[in-house]
Amino acid sequence: MIIATLALVGLYVAMYLWLYKIGIVGSLSCKIGSCEKVNTSPWAVLFGVPVAFWGVLYYIALFSSACLCTLERFAADRRAALLLVVTTGWGVLFSGWLTYLELAIIHAVCMYCVISAILVVIMFALSVLELRVTRTTAG
Amino acid sequence: MATANKNASRKQFTFLLVAIGIVGAAALGYVATRPKGGGEAIDPNMPLGTAQGFVMGSPDAPVKIVEFADFECPACGQFATLTEPDVRARLIKTGQVQYTFYVFPLPMHKNTWPASNAAYCAGEQGKFWEMHDRLFYTQDLWNTLATSSPDKKMKGYAADLALDMGKFDACYDSKRNYPNIKASGAEAEQRGIDETPSFIIGGKKYSGSQPYDKIKQLVDEELAKLGKADPAKKGAK
Questions:
Q1: Nearest C-alpha of chain B: how many angstroms from A24?
Q2: CATH number of the domain to which A25 belongs
Q3: Torsion angle (degrees, nearest 10) of CA B1, B6, B8, B9
Q4: How many domains does chain A divide into?
Q5: Which structural domain, as residue segments, surrounds residue A62?
């Protein structure tokens, strides 16, 4: 449940950045870091699509998976817990790569990217815990 | 008992998700629909005018620096207020560098067009750089987050700079420089500029706000290539 809640927060963060990228939001409200520098850099686009849009798709998938896992029929299903670990683990790897780009290549940090990275790390930790609990229960 | 607890927990979870959903959607709706400054749609079919760079420094200066910047871009503002004063005092005024500024309006900055318009119109009266400085130093007072109608601010700056307001208003209101501003942006794109501010020094592109030491180092390298010693070697750095 907590993972689904955090995924929903992440979805809104990604949507905000995406709306900025496509010109619907005028300026980013960025009190810490250099959000504009990061989001207008060439690295903010992946395979011709804004990275923020990939983020929106990712969080929709994660939110849906997490909601499914809250259903009673999947509550003790180890495969469902494993799916969450893989999904959030992918998010951690991708966020790690983005953070590397920010620090080493772009030399600027986007507050919203940091928030997203923190969210996926927390969700990954929670899903690993969930998997262990499921394994114990099943065992 | 356990089932009752589970049901209560599920209800709380659903309530929390709905609450976050509503708050998030409202926040996004607000930022997406709030007035975005300028209020003017830039015609994509507007013809290209002339790409005009605004020049500072001696034409005989051995090193040329070209900057592409957006008046509303925070990194450009940071460069203009923190680094550019040193560049002017130590490199341009000493005759080592001729500096050319091109406007590169980015699509996400809705107030950059009125600001560029104000700078061009001030330029028609020989005060481009004064308006350039005023715009960058007061960026947070007229940018998209600050106002949805920057025209009053722009005209106020023109009055502060003692411009002929009749001529300025005629120029500003007619938007006759918009095709030139568009051409300036096209010039940037043609040169492969994809970030603001960007600089061309010695034929090479440098993206992002550069510190003074880096610019000084690049200028020194260019001077060395030309076999010209830095005349301000004693105290330039």
A1: 6
A2: 1.20.1440.130
A3: 140
A4: 1
A5: 2-138
> What does the alpha-carbon distance between residue B155 and residue A14 come to, in Å, rounded to a whole number?
38
Tell me the CB-side half-sphere exposure of residue B203, using CA atoms within 13 A.
3
pTM, to two decimals: 0.62
| Cβ-Cβ contacts under 8 Å, B145 against chain A | 26-27, 29
**pLDDT tens profile B120-153:** 999 999 999 999 999 999 998 998 778 878 999 9
H/E run at residue B27: helix B2-33
Q: Would you call A64 an interface residue with chain B, using a CB distance cutoff of 8 Å?
A: no
Name the residue in chain A with its Cα closest to that of B107.
A23
Q: Per the CB < 8 Å rule, is A8 touching B37? A: no
Q: Do A40 and B108 touch (CB under 8 A)?
A: yes
Strand B198-201: give its sheet, edge to edge.
B54-56, B97-103, B63-69, B198-201, B204-207
Note whether A78 contacts B: Cβ–Cβ < 8 A. no
ipTM: 0.70
